[in-house]
Amino acid sequence: FIDYSGKNLNLHKLLDYGKKVVLFFFPKAFSPACTMQNKKFAEYFEIFKLANTELIGISQDSGNCLNRFAKKYKLPFTMISDEQNELRDLYKVPSSFKGLSPGRVTFVIEPSTKSIVHIYNSILNATNHVEVAIKIISEILEVENQFYSVSNLQ
What we know:
Blueprint: H1 11-16, E1 20-25, H2 32-43, H3 45-50, E2 53-59, H4 63-72, E3 78-81, H5 86-90, E4 105-110, E5 115-121, H6 128-153
Parallel strand pairs: 1-2, 2-3
Antiparallel strand pairs: 1-4, 4-5
């Protein structure tokens, strides 16, 4: 991936370093629902950071547009421009409203198996994506803690 500032981001390296990843696809920067969704992710950014989780927002907007969006709303996470829909196609993100709008889908990726453990698809409930991501990350942390406590007993 290349973020809006031109910085290269390697998903596999993040996962290799043990980071959990939340990829969230959103239709359009500056639209009301997408602005609410991104601001909500920003509001909980420190919680995701404490949980060793990388947030990555992806839209079809240009890098320049995402840069303005991130600056205006002080969005502290990585934003990726997917103008050619390569990532949307790779992750099979469906369109919404009978193809009139790009979809809003969130993927939670777990590092030990490097697999998607949860997909949340809702075009209308934009801020629910944050709540669902936090719930899934919490469940992953609980499993990790159980694993480490059992392995420390041996």
